[in-house]
Hints:
By secondary structure, this protein is α/β, with parallel strands linked by helices.
Amino acid sequence: MLRSLFHRGHPVAALAPDSGRAVVLTSGDGSEVTQALRAERPDLDVVEVRAGRAAWARTAGLGPVGLFVDDTDDTDQENGTGTDGTEDSRSVLQRFRRHVLLLADGGRYVGPAALAGPVEGLRQGVRPGQGRGQEGVPPDPVVAAVGPVEVRGGWTSVTRTGRAVVKLREEETTTALEADAGRGAVLARVPAASFDSRCEFREMLPLSARAKTRYEAPPAVLRRYDDALVAPHALVVQRGLVPADSFRHHPQKWLKHEKLLDLDKRYAEEPSWVDDDLPVLAGAWYHLDNEHRGHFGHVLTEQVARMWAWDDALRAEPEVQVVVGVNRNRTTLAGWELQLMEAAGISRDRVTVIDRPVRVERLLGATALFSMPYYVHPHVAETWDRIGASLRERAPQRDYPRRIFCSRKIKKRACHNARDVDALFARHGFEVVFPEEFPLPEQAAMFHEAEVVAGFAGSALFNVMFSDRAKHLVAVASETYTPRNEYLISALRGHRLDMSHSRPDEDDPKYQSKRFMSSFTFDFEREGQWLEDEVLSRLDP
């Protein structure tokens, strides 16, 4: 493969940029390509990356690179080569497709001779397994990245055109960060954890396939990103990377962010403001933003889940401050948001709201310990306990009801006959409340003291996370309400959960968003009877 080209007098060194970094993908240590590059181009930072599961993320962390050389062994079956030592053109193309978008604009990808044919197919607009120009087939970002191609004997050189950002999951983010000391460092770690669900769960219809009986939570880390760009809606970009801190659902196969224009599941267009002369936030800043910052449910499930590392951040950076962004019409922090942060140990004078992209000298970001529907990490209970205890200390001392029903007034996912449902629960001894009408400390005390917490499914019920007392939860939902936050919280806290289901107004599978947001009518002869017979009539007097 490429190792022979040096003996023909055509060194890869001649293809390298004037300066910068070169990555050589190898099957083992001691690549002759690496040795030649280091000998002939001492001005380059040449890094050898072992082929394998972590190679892509490590290369991403080293990038954007000026030169990438595929010097994997011809007989390396992990990389898709034949047992007779011949290169499999499909595997060569797979490696090209996987790595070429990691190159800087004008960077060069150098691979074996077997790469030339497939790349020529790409230039002609033929996608693997498809005909040319098929209607409805999205543009191939790799095709757009293919610039001039040069073929000489045993090797192929492809110049990359354009730029992209790389979307990273949790483990990949840490791998990329640790690949280059100039990017930052890992400041704290929490090991992975497994546990069996402690929730006794019953539902009227068998709709909760995601209600697992056992959870495997990944490791959590506090990372420091040096010279990172931060925009409202929790978007973080650092030298071509979009780390997991940007994504609400980071375990997803296709990472989505509302402020990114995707090229495919792993890459997106580089935001237009990346090269702007941005305002600078000097010092250390803790990233506590969210795509839906200011929405009660998202704050409790997604931002609180990142507060666990605040004390670690203080130890590493005693003057650390907190950065969040404006969000739609939420240009300031609500009082309850500040109270929540204070209950987690974050004083309000440390919090800054940005209204545009900024450059942060040192950005600290923590893995979310709660990611619906994928996992909840047991370590998050320490944060929940801390917040709950702090809020209750500021709550009024009064008698709180043993049973509460959390009703709902807003039009989103509304129950058309909600007041009739309120009356049903009131007849069974529940005090009907609208939690948002109470100060946050009083909400925390009310949920803590209640033995049975019922209500319309959604963020009104999430306050139960702040109580370490096992409770009985009763959730009234539509058949198309798919989130399982209530179950995840109960799985860790040991709450019992009963859930009824009503027919939605919108139930066309083609319109998932409408189905999820659909309003509904509570059917007293169907779900009402189920609740009466199976739940309410069986409550302790």
